[in-house]
Amino acid sequence: MEKTNGYKRAPSRFRNVIEEGGRFPPEIGMCFCSSDAFAWLKPGPALPQDRYHLYVSYACPWASRTLIMRKLKGLDFIGVTIVSPRIGPDGWPFATLDDYPGAEPDPLYNSRLVKDLYLRADPEYVGKYTVPLLWDKKQHTIVNNESADIVRMFNYAFNSYLPAHKAALDYYPPELRGEIDSLEAWMYDDINSAHAPPASRTEALTLIRGSVTDGVYKVGFATTFSQYRDALLPLFDALDRIEKMLSGKVYLVGNRLTEADIRLYVTMVSRTAFYLVRVSALTRGPFGMSDRWLRRLYWKHDAFQSTTDFQHIKTGYYSLKTMRTASPFVPIGPVPHIEPL
Ligand SMILES: N[C@@H](CCC(=O)N[C@@H](CS)C(=O)NCC(=O)O)C(=O)O
Predict the structure, then answer these.
(1) Which residues line ligand 1 (CB under 6 A)?
(2) Residue 66 and residue 150 in contact, taking contact as beta carbons nearer than 8 Å
(3) Where is the signal peptide (predicted)?
(4) For residue 313, what are the CA distances in angstroms to 12, 109, 255, 330?
(5) For the chain, which domains are there?
(6) What ipTM did this prediction achieve?
(7) Ligand 1 centre from 191 Cα, in Å?
(8) What is the 8-class DSSP label of residue 290?
(9) Could you identify the atom of ligand 1 that is nearest to the CA of residue 187?
(10) Hey, whose CA ends up nearest to atom 2 of ligand 1?
(11) So which residues are the catalytic ones?
(12) CB atoms < 10 A from the CB of 28, how many?
């Protein structure tokens, strides 16, 4: 795998979609769950069966996005399993191997590691054993392991089986797609502020996503001072640009909650919990606008608050042996993790 500045993510390998008529349909059947989420159901319901399952770590920002979208859309019929945040040399362990508070065993195969699921899906698989992982219980295989795809699928794939008010929620609305799409380049491009100044708001958003998300990792994984410095300055530039962009606004794109907010939130919330200390990205704040934006998302939307677990986030990053600064324990605080509004 190519490495740039000590950090480069591998492309995801499983990229199937859930779609009618496809290999992975949003299958229709009876639902036997007793969850309140199904209180709207009348007798004789047609619902997607409990066919798909999501494996995630609260410590992974990419996985957390899928949890937020699942919650926003009310996709309770997609089961979730939380792994231990203490990633080891073989990747993410389930509670059977590492019984960390809040971690769960694999309910489907009692796997010890996420790795076992990858090898179950493809015994020849070579690569990282990443989360999120969307699993098909019927074909016993991975549907998709790319958070950007999963978030998109959750936004629309099950719409015809959802109550009207949930189906109507669109976090990737046609009129804002251009702008939102431009944010997604960061997923695969190694963008940083060595680029020319952005020519447009759209371009600025693209740069910002790359700079903040991967930029934070570049800072954290840098092994020399010059790598660290080269990554740190673009990161602060990006945070400054976000500040300006959010000035007088509640959401990043348009006047509504979109995918863009979800994507940025998971990075920014991790930042509050550990980045500033762990990756030596000492703040030059205040970042008033982005702090307020973050606090609004956290306090006003259960989908954000209920999927944010600070203990797992901190434990995940402070346990990472590959990060530069060794840490014998997980620090307390900040208290509160997110300031009230
Ligand atoms: N392309 C993936 C990347 C996900 C990813 O990098 N996950 C990390 C945790 S944040 C992971 O599971 N890493 C496992 C490992 O490094 O062994 C996505 O966005 O879904």
Answers:
(1) 9, 12, 60, 62, 91, 128-132, 146-147
(2) yes
(3) none
(4) 22, 26, 29, 10
(5) 28-167 (3.40.30.10), 174-306 (1.20.1050.10)
(6) 0.99
(7) 18
(8) H
(9) 19
(10) 146
(11) 60, 217
(12) 15
% of the chain exceeding 90 in pLDDT: 45
pTM beyond 0.95: the answer is no
- pLDDT category, 148, cuts 50, 70, 90? confident
The residue among 117, 98, 8, 168 whose CA lies nearest residue 315 is 98
Mutate to test the pocket of ligand 1, among 128, 133, 150, 214 (most ligand atoms within 8 A of CB): 128
- Per residue in 276-295, pLDDT tens? 554 555 554 556 788 889 99
Query: Could you tell me the distance, in angstroms and rounded to a whole number, from the CA of residue 62 to the centre of ligand 1?
Result: 7
* Kind plus residue range of the DSSP H or E element containing 48: strand 47-48
What is the model's pLDDT at position 30? 45
20 a known binding residue?
Answer: no
In the reported structure, the alpha carbon of residue 146 is separated from the centroid of ligand 1 by a whole-number distance in angstroms of: 9
Mean pLDDT within 137-158: 95
pLDDT, one tens digit per residue, over 93-125 is 999 999 999 999 999 999 999 999 999 999 999
Rounded to 5 degrees, φ, ψ at 52 are -105, 150
